[in-house]
């Protein structure tokens, strides 16, 4: 039979799975020789058994008795003993701290007799009756399920009747009266008497703690925090110490350093003559911890000493709970404390400076999500604001701009140099250009996995989605909420970190961390945060095996990526170069009916392409630039079918010849499933000259760079290959073009792996590819058979609820399925070609968890949006040490 109960002297901090965080750390402090009131812990295993079977495991009661008897021996008194009672607290404590989720009952062991014993022993009647009424109150609420308000109300009434608002004005007689009232509440609400038998009180409280694991609040919290549902909680039985024995007693909480800044010093609150949760409950005003120095100097010094011991032992910031009983200090809890993102970076460096941890450990004390948080601009907290709606905080940041209601308006305004917020009911892939042009995106529909949210996060762009109070009228170009009307051109401010929508301009400040990455702020000129980020980034870069490249399609983006530390471009999407005024030329290409027409159209596009590539190769001089040949279905470049049909129909006989031909082409190219249709390498094989034009533009741009004394390193990437034959055809054409351009120009030719068939035949495909780049967005779509644009809005939230996956596979790579294909392709590809270069493009390249996976499977680099590059660098370093 497993051991279900551990004395505080038997456990240690590494047993959190079994003893929960609180129990493991109470044991650890006990072992460190710190003053912890004796007690024992009932394991999470006992809880799991109870929850599964509906009854506590056989033998648990006896084991508890054994430990209780030992505790009574140590304390020299018995639980609830009439003349001198041992009292205990029954405290929950799961592996992960779940603040406020599970409840604790203090003063177990009091009843009508032992309260008198406690009064006599302590010489303090008021204290004894106060403790008793607290027991009935907490027990009534937590164990018996009585509405806690009822107790609060009678306490308030009593205070009101006495003309006071302060508990300290209540006397022993008042509390005695309250005990009577509270018992009456219990009787009335539960139909039973308050249980007075001490062991029964304890056993009922233990079960209540077990049950609280499945309370609605706990379930909700676990879902939000992604804590597994089957861990269960431990229960700690801890002998009571009393902070409510008089003004020489009290209770407090403290941090070993400031959790907001990391500064060492004295941080905490203290409350005299109080018990347990009074400090956090805000019943009376606490005093700053430093004041304890005046109240009781020796205790204060002992506390500071203990905090130092704890920091040196846990090698991290700790938070603690303590109680002073008649001038004696007791430690009731400690754990490694939560902290802000900024404090995490500072503390990691501070601890390294103090020699407590090394830099490898320091980069594990921070993470990419925290770094990302530090990079977002913020609204000035002090500025006046008029909030008009609240949506979901889909992609953090603070964005200000004029409201626009269409992508075209966004693009036009941006071209005029204006900042805009794109407001839509929801976005579709058609809104991409508008989203790129906008400062931020605001939608009235859709959740955190809606198109707007996902795309915005990928772009590092601020987004508030699902602001349902907003009535968005795209046609009329305005939105309404209450009696506020926002017309196109009116200024909005949106906070992607909170979901708030404000009318008018709220002042924003750029993050100093971004200014550092941009090179505008030298590390030495930055504050402690900037210096800490710098140090940890330098170390992460040195430690990393994975290189980090960026996805960028313009010279500006490439330059920024380079400043942010990218060592190449992993994905340059050429289709973005066919938008705007060049769309016209693409239309000509599609409408071409003869070779001559087609060639003329391609010739017209070629100079633009060459110019684009030249700029990017220049910005990334000396670094690899992977250029993906055109990928999306051609109809994306044509007008919308419905709009064009209406236009042609309205024009009737007057419709232009071009419009008629366009309409024909739109019909011809219309596909049921464009994602699985004529796109990628298929386009290259079907439309003669298209890929050749692109390759020629790349080669000529490279040649020009060479003649300018540059060092161009283009890599030509063929998308959506499923078989080696497809790749061979595209490759031959590309090689022929490269030869014809001649000179010194060299370019690697490789392919994307984004279809299951490509992954499964990677051994063959590697014969024709010098590199693979995993296109994990499409690979996820094709592996799961999910059309991302459809499923995220329609059923992903249900899937997340059902736990089909804990997080969208488009956010974090699905290791078991998609990841398996990646592994196969890596192994088989390298078997064919040991020097095969392997990378990943697609949003997973900037996702911390996925970066760790790519490190594990041995890729050479990840590629992500420029804004995510620092995050990926940090995670690449963390993955390596
Ligand atoms: P939580 O996880 O909500 O903080 P705790 O189990 O830590 O719950 O207890 C709630 C409060 O009661 C805390 O302030 C704690 O310090 C106090 N407390 C718990 N056990 C004892 C005890 N044996 N003696 C005195 N105070 C206690
Ligand atoms: Mg609590
Ligand atoms: Mg606590």
Automatic annotation (TrEMBL):
Residues 60-285, 299-343 form the Pyruvate phosphate dikinase AMP/ATP-binding domain. Residues 532-877 form the PEP-utilising enzyme C-terminal domain. Its cofactor is Mg(2+). Residues 418-499 form the PEP-utilising enzyme mobile domain. Keywords: ATP-binding, Kinase, Magnesium, Metal-binding, Nucleotide-binding, Pyruvate, Transferase. InterPro entries: ATP_grasp_subdomain_1, PEP-util_enz_mobile_dom, PEP_util_AS, PEP_util_C, Phosphohistidine_dom_sf, PPDK_AMP/ATP-bd, Pyruvate_phosphate_dikinase, Pyrv/PenolPyrv_kinase-like_dom. It catalyses: pyruvate + phosphate + ATP = phosphoenolpyruvate + AMP + diphosphate + H(+). It is an enzyme of class 2 (transferase). The keyword Kinase applies. The keyword ATP-binding applies. Its EC number is 2.7.9.1. It holds the Pfam family PEP-utilizers_C. PANTHER family: PHOSPHOENOLPYRUVATE DIKINASE-RELATED (PTHR22931), PYRUVATE, PHOSPHATE DIKINASE 1, CHLOROPLASTIC (PTHR22931:SF9). Belongs to the PEP-utilizing enzyme family. This is Pyruvate, phosphate dikinase. The gene is ppdK.
